[in-house]
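User: I'm writing a short report section on ligand binding and want a predicted complex to refer to. Could you take this sequence and zinc ion and write out the structure as C-alpha cells? A short remark afterwards would be nice.
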Amino acid sequence: MLLFLDSVPYIIIFIFGIVIGSFLNVCIYRLPLHESIIMAPSHCMTCGRKLRWYDMVPVFSWIVLGGKCRNCKSKISVQYPIIEALNGIFYVLVCAVNGLTWVSLLYCLMVSALLTLSLIDWRTYEIPFGINVFLFFIGIAATVSDRGNLISHLIGAVCVSAFLEILFMLSGGRAIGGGDIKLMAACGLILGWKQIILAFLLGCIIGSVVHTIRIKVSGAGHMLAMGPYLSAGIFLAALWGNTWIGWYLSLLGL
Ligand SMILES: [Zn+2]
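Assistant: Sure. The C-alpha cells for the complex follow:
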C-alpha cells in the first residue's frame, strides 16, 4: 500500500508527460512544414478523417487500434506512441532525480524541446529556430532563479557555442550547423559551464559511436545530424552531470 502511494505522483507525472508527448508529435510533423501547431484539428494522414478524442488518448489509442486508422485501416506510425511514452519516461526520470521542484519543471520543458528538435533534425537536418528561442527563454528562467551561479550560466552560454562558432567559420559552415551552435548556447545558459562542456563531450562520443555503426550496418550517408546526439548529451549531463563531475574530481583528489 505504501509503495503504491509512493508511486502515485510518478504515475500522474507519466500521464502528464505522455499528454505533452502527443502535442510534441504534432510539432514534429507540422513545424518543418510551417503549419500551425494549434489551429488545425488532428486528422488521419491518409484518409483525412478527423480524429475523435478517444482516438487521441496518448499511447493507449494506438495500442487499442492496433496501429491502424479506425476509418481507412491505414497504418499509423509507431513513432507516435514511442514519442509519447519517451516523453512520459523522461519526465519521471527528471522528477526522480530532482524531486518536485522548479528545476524539474524547467528540465521537463527542456527535455520535450530536445525530443522534438532531435526528431526534426534527424529527418530534415534542420533545427527549427523557434525551438532554440524556446530553450533560450528556459535558460533565462533558469539563470534568474539561480542568481548565485549567474556567472556559471553566462559562461555556459558561450563556452561551447563560441568554440563551435569558430569551427563553423573555419569550415565554411560544413563542420557544424548554425542550429547546433544556438542549441549549445541556449542549453549552456540553462545548465552552466561545467555541465554544458560535459554535454558536448558526451554528445560527440555518442554521435561518433552511433554514426560509425550506422555507416557500417546500413551504409547510411556521411551526412550527420548532430542535434539528436547533442540532445542526448545535454539530457544525461542535466540529470547526472553533477554527480559524474563530482566522482571525477574526487578521483583526482580534488
Ligand atoms: Zn484514415
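A remark for your report: The longest helix spans residues 2-30. Residues 44, 46-47, 49, 69, 71-72, 74 surround zinc ion (CB under 6 Å).
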